[in-house]
Amino acid sequence: MTADAQAAFASYKDEALVAIAAASSEDALETVRVEFLGKKRGRLRDLQALLGKAEADERPMLGKAFNEVRVEVQTAFEARQAALARPQVAAAAVDVTLPGPRPVIGRRHPITRTMDDFKDIVGRMGFSVATGPELEDDHHNFVALNIPPVHPARDPLDNFYLATASVGSGDQAVLMRSQTSTVQIRVMEQTAPPVRIVSLGRCYRPDTIDATHHCMFHQMEGLAVDTDITMADLKTVLKHFATAFLGDDVSVRFRPSFFPFTEPSVEVDVLWRDRWLELGGAGMVDPNVLRQVGYDPDEVTGFAFGLGIERFSMMRYQVTDIRRFFENDYRFLSQF
Ligand code: PHE
């Protein structure tokens, strides 16, 4: 009797383990469960019946063997159940060498692209990139640039004044910078000549917003100071720059103008595809500005320019409304 029962346990266990391993789906496994572990009609019940028929002194030993078999089959069943529940990787169906759909990735904003291109071009002409704060004080935005206290450029209607704050030696007006010329001063204050820098960044003026004006825009400031800089150097640099960016051999024209920080001062135009387009202001650094930063105007001369970046971007990418740049419309931005 004992031997029969033990043989029955062993064959139950072997068959159950084979059936569990062979079950290839959750449904198939359920059928196996009903057959081997089911409480109502399963084969486990038949084994239990054998136990009942055993002699009293054999029962403890057989009961232990029965329990071991039951636990082993139950454990195998649970492991198989967990394995089948895991998502299957269809190994054969995935060929990682095949091209799939192109992932959507970001791209540079057209203004950023233009600024990166500008830095490349002027970098080849020996200009390094300087930066300055967008929140400026009266000294750097006006005083050091030779803009006197009563100058119309200081009009509160033309500037974003924010506060009066104690800066350096005393109280000063603080404003969002209206031009990148502020960086000329910051660089010269900290560096002895010669200098050759550009600075690209945002400027702020409370202009009425329309297709060609915005209250926030970008400029590229340029400054070169050395012992023998002339207006011819300025024109050469701007011509090379415009030609490199626009890809045509463009002409550059100077028109007489006025800026407090340059003397003489000019407006710069470029002839591109049969039209004269205004690029910005430029001139020879005013001796008063050189003196302000501790340079000796008898020793060094310099040129400076300030170009509107949006205007170049609009020409290059045929954008007709400056507002498009700052609306963050994906349909617009995804074209670049
Ligand atoms: N800062 C001037 C402007 O914003 C441009 C300029 C820069 C003119 C440098 C001369 C020299 O209009």
Strand-helix topology:
Blueprint: H1 2-22, H2 26-37, H3 43-53, H4 59-85, H5 110-124, E1 128-129, E2 135-137, H6 138-141, E3 160-167, E4 170-176, H7 181-190, E5 195-204, E6 216-226, H8 231-246, E7 251-259, E8 262-272, E9 275-285, H9 287-292, E10 301-308, H10 309-317, H11 330-333
Parallel strand pairs: 1-5
Antiparallel strand pairs: 2-4, 3-4, 5-6, 6-10, 7-8, 8-9, 9-10
Helix pairs in contact: 1-2, 1-3, 1-4, 2-4, 3-4, 5-8, 5-10
Bound molecules: phenylalanine (PHE).
Residues 179, 181, 259, 262, 265, 280-283, 304-306 line the site of phenylalanine (PHE).
Write up what this structure looks like.
The protein is an alpha+beta fold and 336 residues long. It folds into two domains: 2-85, no CATH class; 110-133 and 178-333, BirA Bifunctional Protein, domain 2. The chain contains eleven helices and ten strands. Strands 1-5-6-10-9-8-7 form a seven-stranded mixed β-sheet, sandwiched between helices. A three-stranded antiparallel β-sheet has the order 2-4-3. Helix 1 runs antiparallel to helix 3 and helix 2 runs antiparallel to helix 4. The chain starts with a helix and ends with a helix. The mean pLDDT is 92. It binds phenylalanine (PHE). Phenylalanine (PHE) binds at residues 179, 181, 259, 262, 265, 280-283, 304-306.
